[in-house]
Write a structure and sequence with these properties.
Layout lengths: L12 H11 L6 E5 L5 H6 L5 E6 L2 H10 L5 E5 L2 H7 L4 E4 L5 H7 L4 E6 L2 H13 L3 E7 L2 E6 L2 E6 L3 E7 L9
Parallel strand pairs: 1-2, 1-4, 2-3, 4-5
Antiparallel strand pairs: 5-9, 6-9, 7-8
Length: 177
Amino acid sequence: MESEFNHGKFTKDEIIGVVFSKLKPERHWVFADIGSGSGRVAEFFSPYVRKVYAVERDAILAAELIRKFNGTNVQVVGGDGYDFLLTHKPDCVFFGGTSRIDRMLEACTAKRMAVNCARIDVALKVVEKMRELDFFTEIVAVNVSKSYDLAGGIAFRALNPVFVVVGNAEGGKSRSR
């Protein structure tokens, strides 16, 4: 469900599938969707993990998410992702946005994480930071095209590419926080 407040800026289903396949959450884990926006990622992950935090700094979107996830295993946290990571220790994290990503990665103690980037230059900065912290795994460029009817046949319209930067702290240096 697209919110009237997020103006179509949400993680597409195909991207969520790639993120899920890279994060491979375990059933007993706690997952955090930082920059939750419409809540699509939190909603997708919720049946597969013990608990989900949907972290959203936009108060209007956070209020919508509270209504949306009432009675589920998704807890909405209104506020900044960095502040959340200072006080919570999720097992798995998805960063839906890249605002202040450097400091959030420094504060993150999750076993696995993924960062969605719309621009390659930002993705490369995330890679650099993850390498500095010794948990970079890979970057996946996801190019999706969707079909539409054209002159009695089917054609495809490309969506903007998304760069998914994946990190795995389980294979890197031990980080204590």
